[in-house]
């Protein structure tokens, strides 16, 4: 009961039309009024039940919508009795109706703020449009009614206030639609407010003609409004969506907002200049009003420009600093070392710090406590480091400090850092204590070399019992071992941008034409040649380097996609797939990073597919779900990579907003000769179809495999049958000779 409906928008529109036609049918007024009351009470009861059952976020805000509707219903019920009386009785319904507007406005304002709206630009837009609406309301509704005999000043003002209030709440809904267009409930809520505005305008217009009681047919817009409110509540977003989905890009000068401003200014100017028989006071008031509106627009321009500059500075800071500790990241740390220390005479040293026992804290108390410990560590390093020192966080629990001075000064500082970091840390769940292992190296030839040497010295400190420091010397090279040497070489490769992005085509099984590519990371060691990703990617994960490398891969791949588009090699429906590590999903700003890179390269979110592993889905915590929902709100597709090799719980496919399943090559290799593999694939396709997920098969190498996969209903595949992973230049040549003959419709994506 109360499940989200699966009707299409056209079905709800048709139902709305049928309801309005039924209400306007030639029936007695008593029947029409009774039907109105039954419908309103039923909708309110069902709406309250839906809100209580779904408990949407932000808390209690959506409850204000049916509460306001209850107040409106009480006001509507009292109005016939009130309009038939004199004195204060004539206004008995207005306190309830006005209270309904207040409650509804509060609810809409909270929704707008939760969705990322209610910015200063939006508030100014509302003020400008509200002033224009006030001018129109006064000229066409309030002043004409004041001249009617038997109409009180209070009644005339209220007749003009209601359309103005409707316009105000409609603007709040408009802000919701501009800020979070992906939320379907906001669209229906806008239609609901629009119907209410139409009804109030109807009452105001007949009031101009001296009619105090309108025919029951004039309540048709309010009947439609109640129905549309119920439709909006039935499309409530998930609990995690409205208050956390702030990834939609805000455009202060969008065409829609400019249209609101232009129409408001032009309308106010026209109305103020065309009213005849204006007194001197009215002329002055009109002039002041126009000046105020123009001043608001100018203030809005200044706010927008300042906001753009501030946002740019924030984005630049975020791109160069660690999101958790606000310390400089690797690239920014290296830049500061080069600029701040290079100009100072004398030697300089680099200290590489790694926390001992951090993994135990993380595993015992969770990532949240681990993050708090890292933040406290960063604060202690700031306090303990001397003035002028450069502090940074590389990844995970690895920190670096660069200082001027000789080795003796660096040794003294290392002793102080180790003692300071060893002190217990009081956290909400417990008091924890970790030590630190520290490596020291002189900054002589380059930052990359010093970092590599300090890292090796840190490993020596760990090997000698931890909670101490070691100084790099040449004897370390023979002692650190092959694994440490491999990690150091990999760190150098990352620092020197020696990694490469290759691409493998994802093709249509039916036509063999490329429908996208998957980006794959490659590394060629200067001495040992190509290194398998199976070996170096886990090291990237363990060291935390995968976060920075993952961002670089996404940036590079989107730039290559943009280049292929500009060369006319691919169309807008060509999809780029990029692998995402579990560590990247722990970054709260990952969705913002994806959105910024999409915008920077002028690529739509629908052209990007992020591939996540089943281990990422295993955590299934609220933060991961929220992040994936935010990525989906950008239009980005989500694929489960290597499906079948891990836990493969079907609940993951149901609970996570994934759009595609990639079947692992281990099931594909024997599908043409192993009945068990075929049965597994058949089941995966059936489940995927039921959940409206697309399916891609990996590792297709023979025509026989392709035929079986196509027969089973798999839509796409990748493998050596069509294309081996190649460099960007070779992939461009492949695309130039393998352009699709026709654009196929993309598989349906599961809705949010």
From TrEMBL:
Keywords: Membrane, Transmembrane, Transmembrane helix. It holds the Pfam family GGDEF. PROSITE patterns: EAL, GGDEF. Gene3D superfamilies: 3.30.70.270, EAL domain. Residues 346-474 form the GGDEF domain. Residues 483-739 form the EAL domain. Coiled coil: none annotated. It comes from the Bacteria. InterPro entries: Biofilm_reg_signaling, EAL_dom, EAL_sf, GGDEF_dom, Nucleotide_cyclase, Rev_trsase/Diguanyl_cyclase. The chain crosses the membrane at residues 34-52, 59-78, 90-111, 123-145, 157-178, 185-206, 212-234, 284-303. This is Diguanylate cyclase (GGDEF)-like protein. It comes from Kineococcus radiotolerans.
């Amino acid at each position: 009961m109360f499940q989200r409906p699966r009707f299409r928008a056209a079905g709800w529109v048709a139902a709305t039309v049928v309801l309005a036609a039924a209400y306007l049918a030639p029936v007695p007024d008593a029947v029409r009024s009774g039907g109105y009351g039954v419908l309103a009470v039923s909708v309110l009861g069902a709406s309250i039940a839906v809100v209580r059952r779904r408990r949407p976020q932000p808390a209690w805000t959506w409850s204000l919508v049916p509460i306001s509707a209850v107040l409106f219903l009480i006001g509507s019920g009292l109005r016939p009795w009130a309009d038939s009386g004199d004195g204060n009785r004539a206004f008995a319904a207005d306190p309830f109706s006005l209270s309904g507007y207040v409650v509804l406005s509060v609810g809409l304002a909270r929704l707008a703020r939760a969705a990322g709206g209610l910015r200063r630009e939006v508030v100014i837009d509302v003020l400008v449009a509200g002033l224009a609406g006030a001018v129109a309301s006064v000229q066409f509704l309030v002043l004409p009614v004041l001249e009617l005999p038997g109409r009180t000043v209070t009644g005339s003002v209220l007749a003009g206030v209601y359309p103005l209030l409707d316009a105000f709440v409609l603007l709040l809904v408009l802000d919701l639609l501009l800020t979070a267009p992906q939320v379907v409930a906001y669209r229906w809520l806008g239609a609901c407010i629009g119907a209410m505005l139409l009804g109030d305008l109807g009452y105001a217009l007949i009031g101009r003609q001296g009619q105090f009681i309108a025919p029951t047919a004039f309540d048709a817009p309010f009947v439609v409004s109640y129905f549309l409110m119920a439709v909006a509540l039935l499309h409530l977003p998930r609990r995690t969506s409205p208050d956390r989905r702030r990834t939609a890009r805000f455009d202060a000068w969008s065409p829609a907002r400019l249209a609101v401003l232009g129409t408001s200014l032009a309308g106010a100017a026209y109305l103020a200049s065309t009213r005849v028989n204006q007194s001197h006071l009215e002329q002055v008031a009109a002039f002041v009003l126009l000046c105020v509106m123009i001043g608001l627009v100018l203030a809005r321009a200044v706010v927008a420009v300042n906001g753009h500059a501030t946002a740019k500075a924030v984005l630049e800071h975020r791109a160069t600093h660690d999101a958790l500790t606000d310390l400089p990241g690797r690239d920014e740390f290296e830049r500061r070392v080069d600029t701040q220390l290079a100009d100072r005479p004398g030697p300089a040293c680099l200290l590489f710090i790694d926390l001992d026992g951090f993994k135990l804290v993380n595993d015992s108390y969770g990532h949240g406590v681990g993050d708090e410990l890292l933040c406290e560590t960063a604060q202690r390093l700031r306090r303990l480091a001397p003035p002028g020192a450069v502090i940074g966080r590389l990844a995970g629990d690895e920190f670096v400090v660069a200082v001027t001075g000789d080795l003796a000064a660096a040794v003294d500082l290392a002793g102080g850092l180790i003692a300071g970091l060893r002190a217990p840390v009081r956290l909400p769940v417990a008091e924890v204590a970790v030590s630190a292992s520290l490596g020291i190296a002189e900054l002589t030839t380059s930052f990359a070399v010093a970092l590599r040497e300090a890292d090796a010295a840190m490993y020596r400190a760990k090997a000698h019992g931890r909670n101490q420091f070691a100084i790099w010397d040449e004897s370390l090279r023979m002692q650190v071992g092959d694994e440490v040497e491999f990690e150091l070489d990999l760190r150098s490769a990352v620092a020197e941008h020696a990694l490469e992005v290759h691409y493998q085509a994802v093709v249509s099984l039916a036509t063999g034409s490329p429908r996208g590519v998957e980006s794959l990371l490659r590394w060629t060691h200067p001495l040992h040649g190509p290194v398998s990703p199976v070996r170096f990617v886990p090291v990237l994960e363990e060291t935390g380097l995968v976060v920075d490398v993952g961002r670089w891969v996404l940036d590079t791949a989107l730039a290559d996609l943009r280049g292929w588009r500009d060369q006319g090699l691919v169309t807008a429906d060509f999809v780029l797939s990029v692998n995402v590590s579990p560590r990247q999903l722990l970054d709260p700003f990952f969705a913002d990073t994806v959105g910024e890179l999409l915008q920077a390269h002028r690529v739509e979110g629908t052209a990007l597919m992020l591939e996540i592993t089943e281990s990422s889905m295993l955590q299934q915590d609220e933060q991961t779900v929220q992040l994936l929902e935010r990525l989906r709100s950008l239009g980005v597709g989500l694929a489960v990579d290597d499906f079948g090799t891990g836990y493969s719980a079907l609940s993951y496919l149901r609970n996570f907003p994934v759009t595609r399943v990639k079947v692992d090559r281990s099931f594909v290799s024997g599908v043409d000769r192993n009945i068990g593999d075929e049965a597994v694939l058949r089941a995966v396709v059936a489940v995927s179809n039921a959940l409206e997920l697309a399916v891609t098969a990996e590792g297709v190498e023979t025509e026989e495999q392709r035929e079986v996969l196509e027969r089973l209903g798999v839509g796409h595949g990748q493998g050596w049958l069509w294309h081996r992973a190649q460099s960007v230049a070779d992939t461009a040549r492949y695309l130039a000779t393998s352009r699709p003959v026709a654009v196929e419709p993309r598989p349906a994506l599961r809705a949010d």
